[in-house]
Amino acid sequence: MLAAFNRPKGDTCMRAATFRRSTLAATLGLLAAALMLAAVALAAKPAHGAHFHGRTAAQPVVGFYAPVTFTVSQDGRSLKGFSYGSLGCLGAGGFRPGVSPYTGGSIIRVGSVKVSSAGAISASGAKSTSGSLGNTIVTTVSIAGRFTKAKAATGTISFSQTIGGKFNSSCGPARIGFKASAK
Q1: Is 121 exposed, middle or buried (0-12, 13-18, 19+ CB in 10 A)?
Q2: Residue-level pLDDT at 96
Q3: CA 107, CA 83: separation in Å to the nearest integer?
Q4: pLDDT computed for residue 64 by the predictor
Q5: Which residues contact 161 (CB under 8 A, 6 or more apart)?
Q6: Hey, which bits of 21-65 come out as E strands?
């Protein structure tokens, strides 16, 4: 009993600080695990066969937003016909008012994109080739996203471009967000 009274005061403070640190570490670990589970829970399974339309987060050009479209496969494991509007990472100019610039070569056709059983959207290294004014434009695309509801999706499109022909150049990667929904 006397030994307890002879213990230096710093020893008690040190044990209390150690206890607080270990409690804080355990709490932070549990919080991180809960956040990871919540992120997985936020993904939803897509509506099979649904047609989605939306737009990218790019600024509108002469009043038109860059479109995003795709259709969920019948088994829900992929997106068919994924395409999005882009003027490329080099940009363009000289648009006519009232006429959408998102036609022809400004629609990047990615094709099929994977969907996980939890509703995560992913594609990596997909290529789309188009031509204009004696140039060949190869766009390499990666997509990451998720279904937030059965009929709502959000994500990011990353792309790089190589232009060969009269004007040899390359650019990217550029990143742009997108949102799409089905009726």
Answers
A1: buried
A2: 85
A3: 7
A4: 95
A5: 88, 89, 90, 137, 138, 139, 140, 170, 171, 172
A6: 51-56
